[in-house]
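Fresh eyes needed here. Kindly weigh in on this sequence plus structure tokens:
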Amino acid sequence: MADGIQLARAAAQAALATDGIYSMGTGRYAEVATYEGSEKVSGVAVRPDEIEVHVVARYPLPKPIPQIANDVRERISLQGGNRKTTVVFEDIEVVQDENL
């Protein structure tokens, strides 16, 4: 099981690879990030018993937000061990369809 910054990196990559996710969020009122040395992973807070992931969804949505959250949780659970995973949707980004 990865820990700290490695786990934050893996969680961010897993979230970004999930269909319906546009980008990582950074926190609405306070920055959400994991730090180690001079490295920072924005949008992921790794705690001893929880991983908190902040994301921005892509619109149009491929499926309902609760299903996207479950997909993110499933991808992250592979690296997170027994940690609870909380997915926070901070915003929705409207993506223009190039075919229109």
The first helix runs from residue 4 to 16. The CA atoms of residues 26 and 43 lie 5 Å apart. The radius of gyration is 14 Å. The longest strand covers residues 84-94.
